[in-house]
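Exercise 7b. Backbone tokens:
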């Protein structure tokens, strides 16, 4: 009988070759799976970072930073291509690509080449894996109020000089910035229930009534009864009126006395105590310290009251009233923006013409400027409504 020991060794040796191949394939495939999983996780992190800086100049830098933090260079000896920003058809955007306001989706792609450990014995030197990720820009319960300065200084350029070119003026630049913001927030949609934008034009005074309304009249131009002009809310403890009578009287009739005539008092419907605040029918969210006069145009005085008589010098430059301001309901307090009252004094016709009581109140040294023609645009979900209001501030 022949010795078969040598044959068994040969068979065992031959059988090891596919066994090693199978083990090698399993090892290299496992490594590829680990790399692919890590690559996709890194792409997701990078896409979220890019979405947060969608319109920023450093978007590419943020994407790369977050990708590298989750997929370090040289991970498992890989060579990586990407992450790359692409469009819906897979076309790669050039570095520094700028998205427009209607773009809502950021797409990333990347691939990695992994050197094999065992499969290279069979002439397979590397394996390739890839991944994609995308994020969609959305708005989640966002309220935005745009306050636009309409004062005379906005007719100057950014450097402060006068310009005959309308486009160089600050007001036009402010309108452009506001338009861009609205376009960015709405994107390609015309209405978004999760997004609300309001508009508040202001100058030396603010028109607090809702845009397109008139005090004392309904939407059809019909006068409304006095009982429907406003609602009231009682003020606990009835504090003193922060607008001191003596500081708002003028010698309007040139008789040498500021106390002889009722109209020497500039403030309309003034009372020594604040027993209630008023909410006009067309300014339902703004508390007023007095009943609006019949000819009220919707304007209010500045928050801080005067602390000097009308003939005292530099009365417009006096800010000591800020230290005396207090909440009419809760008493004196310090708010994040400084002391404040929870109410504003309605301004009558004395603030609407060039030569007015307010000018006399300041020794005749100051002219009275007209306020913005438009009032406050309440929070809106519709882009067209906001765009129309911005064109006619």
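Sequence design result:
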């Amino acid at each position: 009988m022949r010795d078969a020991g040598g044959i068994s060794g040969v068979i065992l040796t031959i059988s090891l070759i596919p066994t090693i191949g199978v083990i090698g394939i399993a090892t290299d495939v496992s490594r590829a799976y680990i790399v692919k999983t890590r690559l996709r996780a890194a792409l997701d992190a990078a896409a979220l970072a890019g979405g947060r800086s969608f319109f920023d100049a450093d978007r590419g830098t943020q994407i790369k930073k977050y990708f590298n933090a989750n997929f370090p260079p040289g991970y498992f000896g890989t060579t990586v291509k990407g992450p790359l920003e692409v469009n819906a058809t897979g076309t790669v955007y050039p570095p520094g690509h700028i998205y427009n306001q209607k773009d809502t989706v950021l797409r990333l792609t990347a691939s990695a080449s992994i050197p094999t450990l065992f499969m290279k014995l069979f002439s397979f030197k590397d394996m390739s894996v890839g991944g994609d990720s995308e994020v969609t820009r959305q708005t989640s319960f966002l309220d935005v109020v745009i306050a636009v300065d309409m004062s005379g200084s906005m007719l100057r350029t950014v450097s402060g000089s006068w310009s005959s070119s309308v486009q160089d003026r600050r007001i036009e630049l402010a309108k452009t910035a506001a338009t861009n913001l609205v376009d960015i927030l709405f994107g390609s949609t015309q209405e978004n229930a999760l997004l609300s934008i309001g508009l508040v034009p202001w100058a030396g005074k603010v028109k607090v009534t809702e845009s397109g309304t008139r005090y004392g009249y309904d939407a059809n131009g019909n006068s409304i009864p006095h009982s429907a002009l406003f609602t009231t809310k009682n003020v606990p403890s009835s504090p003193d009126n922060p607008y001191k009578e003596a500081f708002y009287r003028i010698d309007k009739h040139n008789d040498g006395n500021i106390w002889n005539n009722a109209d020497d008092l500039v403030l309309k419907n003034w009372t020594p105590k604040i027993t209630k605040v008023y909410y006009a029918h067309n300014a339902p969210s703004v508390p007023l310290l007095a009943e609006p006069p019949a000819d009220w145009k919707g304007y209010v005085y500045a928050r801080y009251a005067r602390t000097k008589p009308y003939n005292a010098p530099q009365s417009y430059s006096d800010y000591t009233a800020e230290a005396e301001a207090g909440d009419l309901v809760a008493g004196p307090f310090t708010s994040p923006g400084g002391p404040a009252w929870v109410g504003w004094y309605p301004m009558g016709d004395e603030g609407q013409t060039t030569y007015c009581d307010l000018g006399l109140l300041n020794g005749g040294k100051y002219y009275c400027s007209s306020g913005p023609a438009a009032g406050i645009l309440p929070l809106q979900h519709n882009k067209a409504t906001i765009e129309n209001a911005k064109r006619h501030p």
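Instructor comment: Confidence is low (pLDDT under 50) at residues 314-340. The chain has three domains: 5-136, 138-203+372-393, 205-370.
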